[in-house]
Amino acid sequence: MNNPRPCYLQIAIDTPLNAVFDYRWQCEAGQRPQIGQLALVSFARREVVGLIVGVADHTDVPVDKLKDALAVRSQLSPLSAKWLALAGFAADYYQRPLGEVALPGLPKNLRVLTTVALDRAIKKLAKLEVPHDPTPANPPSLNASQQEAADAIGGAQGFKPSLLYGVTGSGKTEVYLQACAQVLAREPDGQILILVPEINLTPQLEGNIRARFPGVMLATLHSSLSEGERMLHWLAAHEGKARIVLGTRLAILSSLPHLKLIVIDEEHDPSYKQQEGLRYSARDLAVWRAWQLQIPIVLGSATPSLESWHHAQSGRYRKLELRERAVKNAVLPTVKLIDMERDKPSDGLTSQLVAAIKQRMERGEQSLLFLNRRGYAPVICCESCGWISECTRCTSFMVLHRPEHRLRCHHCSLEMRIPRHCPTCGNVDLQPLGRGTQRVEEGLQAMFPEARVLRIDADSTRKKGSAQEAFDTVHRGEVDILIGTQMVAKGHDFKKLTLVGILNPDTALFSQDYRASERLFAQLMQVAGRAGRAGIPSEVLIQTRYPQHPLYGAVVHHDYDHFASALLEEREQAALPPYLFQALLRAEARELATAIEFLNMARDCVEHPGITINDPIPMTMTRVHNVDRAQLLVESPSRPALQAFLKEWMHALREMKSRVKWSLEVDPLDI
Ligand SMILES: [Zn+2]
Ligand SMILES: [Zn+2]
Fold it and tell me: Which residues participate in Zn(2+) 1 binding (predicted)?
């Protein structure tokens, strides 16, 4: 009998401090823990689950400072070296300790103290089976360019990034599915990761995948799963049992030991960027992961991000084009601009738009009105003294939600009853100013009393499952006029929809954010793309005060190519991304001066040759929930120089131990 021998485990823990700590472990014979396993340890007087990143026979930590690890989760097979390298890359690139990246990337049930949930999931997974003798749905036949794209993706070997650039309705999904079929047929254990931006798009795609690959286990990973479901699906991917994983951005950090293809649908979508905590871009990590594994990756969009377009133009990505709509006879909708100076709107709708809706009603077709602003009105005001409903905690307004009789701040969630009279002068006649989806809905009901009007936005779909229910109602044809925010702009394929009206898109034209026009163009093309997908001629009407604006000209001509090339040229001349690399340091404090003072100190705390550090400025929305926010933009034309600087800078800032709350974002989207 061998006596237990101690070994030393280096364990990454989810903490902003130095993330890896040594623990002692008594190894039974042949039971040495492995790198990539999880272990229960005590840390800072708590018990936590950490990740084993090293196993050694010696440690430099003095014996009296060493603690024993409490348990090793040996029932879970270790995370692979490739996965650890992915977490390590993300930690390095986004300047965070390894534990803060690797552990939050795992399901919560793996990080709790007991193994009950894990054991239950392991048992459940063992029993899960896919149907024995399944009959897959017949794949539709592809047109020539779809076939070419599917073959190029499905047949690719090694690291081959492709940009699948296809107009809305050109059948990109079908290309993905047939490329997947090729990979699944070729690679007996191979796994495929499909990323989608929004969870409300997943049910449609999920159904398609199940119908086409009934003999293959599909796991889904997104934030609306219960913790139990997430654990089970994560485990199915980790054990290699699930061969297709469909998920939102968080799925990029899932463990996929036999990954052979990555698909990113709507790759331009901002929701691939996490906006808090570890501010990673799932798209960028996916490209790195494909490179690491030397496997093909496809990024699909009708309006690619300028970053990806730039890579396609320079030959780094292979460009695959779908210029036509896939459904026979389906053509792109006619886009028209309505000059709001000439056709003055009443209740937010111009007479031309009203006439077009009426026509659809008569023909039994559906209309979609798009307004990216929820609530009834963005603000209420007193006409006699000029008071407006500002939020007391934010640099922002309280939005009127009339059906709920509330004023709500969309930034800090402050809520109150609608005041009966002006808090300043007592005037009882308070007026809503501007218009949100609720007000447009009300106007439509008054104008078309016989119409079935449905509003879809974050307010109308608070309950779990209610968004899907609402979309199903539209698909069943039980809605005449649909009004919604960006929630309705993406992915959905409404067969009877032949009119899209776009209300009030002008504000983004004059934004300080240089990405605003790229985003507006993508959004308009997306929502316009909902129309006429089933082959019925259709139109898109855009109400604007600036019909001469070149952005609208490009939308009218469905001309992404020229628009993107012109934008890229502008960016190059102005030295902006993708020709320049950026990072943003943000600071928060009760007083703006404190945040600015911290950023000034940060600016001067290390040498920075080759790096431009701008002056600290307050963020556009300075105050949120009684906290003032400021930012410092760092730029360099060299990615390696920027990364090297950030590493040293973060080290210095952590040493500073300031009480100001700060965070760093690499490749920020909102500046
Ligand atoms: Zn007043
Ligand atoms: Zn607020």
Answer: 382, 385, 422, 425
